[in-house]
Amino acid sequence: MDIQSVIREQVSSHPVVLYMKGTPQFPQCGFSAAVVQVLRNCGLTEVAAINVLEDEAVRSGIKEYANWPTIPQLYIQGEFVGGCDIVKEMYETGELQDMLAKAGVIAASS
Amino acid sequence: MSTIEHIRSRLAALDPSSLDIQDDSALHAGHVGAKGGGGHYRLMIVSEHFAGLSTVARHRMIYAVLGDMMRGSIHALAIRALTADEANSQPNRKET
After folding, report:
1. DSSP class of residue B93?
2. A81 is in which domain, residue-wise?
3. pLDDT for the residue B77
4. Which of A61, A94, B9, B18 is buried most deeply by CB count within 10 Å?
5. Which residues touch B35 (CB under 8 Å, ≥6 apart)?
6. Within a domain: residue A109?
């Protein structure tokens, strides 16, 4: 199976999938750490994270998959959401919480 | 030409009415993710080309213009991409 097919399966394997540098417990990049923190602030207790530093094929393949040149990358229900700036912005507007609630991983607010 | 000048010249294609580029590389020196050698930059750009586009589409537009720089001299790029109306309506929004 080629790397793009592997990634297509990965992004749909959980309602929320984060491609990051390091792990949620030990992030190895400030931008990855910031996205993990935002997801926790939303009430997400467990994040399905893929450490791209452990797999060079995924690290380069994911950039091609989303047509997005940087990591971290957040996927909700198999769809690319954005990188660190976008995730933070969507958290501030509440849009991220709505998406996570729709995905069934956090309780809907109000 | 420095990387910042290079970024500036590429982004001219988006006709920015305002463009600010900061080099944050010193804040990230030595961390494992940065070992490829590219720098960390922070970008604030105002352009009418962003009107009607989602944030993802705006960032992709910037990445497309920067092209191969994203695989070489730029390791990380924090982006705020606004239209003039948006920039005027949130002048005091804090930078993060």
Report:
1. P
2. 3-102
3. 92
4. A61
5. none
6. no
CB contact under 8 A, A70 and B70: yes
Q: Quick one: tokens of A100?
A: 């996570």
Domain count for chain B, please give it: 1
The answer to whether residue A108 sits within a structural domain is: no
> What pTM was estimated for this model as a whole?
0.85
A100: phi then psi, degrees, rounded to nearest 5: -65, -35
pLDDT at B39: 86
Is B94 within a domain?
Answer: no
Q: Record the tokens describing residue B29, joined without a space.
A: 């020196």
Within-domain flag for A107: no
**CATH number where B16 lies:** 3.30.300.90
Residues of A at the B interface (Cβ-Cβ below 8 Å)? 21-22, 28-32, 53, 67-71, 80-86, 88-89
Compute the distance between CA of residue A69 and CA of residue A110 in angstroms, rounded to an integer.
36
pLDDT of residue B93: 53
Q: Which of A64, A86, A89, A96 to mutate to test the interface with B (most CBs of B within 10 A)?
A: A86
**Residue B32: what pLDDT?**
54
Query: pLDDT tens across B30-86, in order?
Result: 665 555 567 889 999 999 999 999 999 999 999 999 999 998 889 889 999 999 999
Report the domain count for chain A: 1
Segments in chain A below pLDDT 50: none
The answer to whether the CB of A43 falls within 8 A of the CB of A106 is yes
User: Is residue A32 one of the residues assigned to a domain?
Assistant: yes
SS3 B40: strand
